[in-house]
Amino acid sequence: MSLPPSQALAAPPEPLGDRLDELWALDPSLTFLNHGSFGAVPRAVRRAFVALQERIEARPIEHIDRRLGELLAPSRARTAALLGVEPDSFGFVVNATEGVNAVLQSLEFAPGDELLTTSHVYNAVRNAMRYRARRTGARYVEVEVPLPLSDLDAVVDTLAARLTPRTRLVVLDQVTSPTALVFPVARVAALCAERGVPLLVDGAHVPGMLDVDVDALGCTYWTGNLHKWCCAPKGSAVLWVAPERRADVHPLAVSHLLDQGFAREFDWQGTRDVAAWATIADALAFFDEFGWERVRAHNRALAWFAHDLWCERWQVAPIVPREHAREVFMATVPLPEAIARRYESPAAFQRALYAEDRIEVPILEFGGRWHARASAQLYNRPADYERLADAVARRAAG
Ligand SMILES: Cc1ncc(COP(=O)(O)O)c(C=O)c1O
């Protein structure tokens, strides 16, 4: 089965400028289709980052000690506005993994308690939940949300059916990593509130991608990366906590500022390089130049161009109806079955594409089927996705 014949393939968007790839330092010999994993920092943002490190190194005590709050203030204010939260309601963390771990460590679990999530969970988060469960005698519970998925709201019913009086925490991805879907977090938050269970939303991919109002989602905890779609330097992420739970959540590295305010406590987790956090404001300013709505419209349209192109070229069915999940800058598409017969593992196929075709794209297994995940950022062009379409089709044909 492929796309229904009545549906025309999505057209690629107009690029937002000429040679935008030159604004990034990515190797021009690579076709880079994996912005989603670690982001990529524009040259201008890197320059701001390095300049800031030099400023800090010129007067370390002044910047890291006496003026830390001042140094972080522009990033704090811009991040708050981007996410729809109060500036002192979130702490900076190095990445979403750390945000999740800080929440897990701050909660008490007893033998028999349950930590619930779905099969679309990011593997590092799965491991963090399993580890915490193992250390406390709690149970890690993962509910299957199989593909293809005809209605994303099914996630709410699936979780509702697995909530028990022993459920102490639900973890839900807002944008899923392996499958690039937008899960109905506000509806799950309402369900969790009704059952009195805290909800941790993993919004790793959300900042910059979705127009989000974290305060209004109704969740208990929310973490997200600014080093992915906002292109801030690596090590830029936040953890937001609802006001009534804020006093109970502490950073993984408890340090001098214990109990001196949620945001301040996270700002100081021992001596560390704070330049990435302080450069978030510069990364956001980089996208201001293009206009956020234009960036979002471009990246979404390009991801969906890739989606339709690959489905059509490989004669595979989409994992969700095409009207769903059009808000994201990524698309996950099943590979032709022949690929899995020719390569030992998804990783082996990914390596072959990199070594032989100079294409960097994540290949992953989900629900017993291999998939490719497209990412779309301003530097990508439709021809990038055509290259992967051809490389896969050629190998599938033998
Ligand atoms: C859904 C999700 N959660 C968490 C993470 C972890 O992000 P980080 O490696 O920045 O901690 C990722 C990274 O891709 C992700 O996709």
Structure in words:
- With 398 residues, the chain is an alpha/beta fold.
- It has two domains: 45-286, Type I PLP-dependent aspartate aminotransferase-like (Major domain) (Aspartate Aminotransferase, domain 2); 291-396, Aspartate Aminotransferase, domain 1.
- It is 42% helix and 14% strand.
- It contains 16 helices and twelve strands.
- It has helices at residues 35-38, 43-58, 60-66, 68-83, 96-106, 123-136, 154-162, 185-195, 214-217, 262-267, 275-278, 280-288, 292-314, 337-342, 346-357, 382-396, and strands spanning 31-32, 90-93, 114-118, 139-143, 167-173, 199-202, 221-225, 237-241, 330-334, 359-360, 363-366, 369-375.
- The strands form three sheets. Strands 2-8-7-6-5-3-4 form a seven-stranded mixed beta sheet, sandwiched between helices. Strands 9-12-11 form a three-stranded antiparallel beta sheet. Strands 1-10 form a two-stranded parallel ribbon.
- Strand 5 (167-173), helix 8 (185-195) and strand 6 (199-202) form a beta-alpha-beta unit.
- Helix 2 crosses helix 3 and helix 4 crosses helix 12 (280-288).
- The radius of gyration is 21 Å and the shape is globular.
- The two termini are 21 Å apart.
- Bound molecules: pyridoxal-5'-phosphate.
- Pyridoxal-5'-phosphate (PLP) binds next to helix 5 and helix 6.
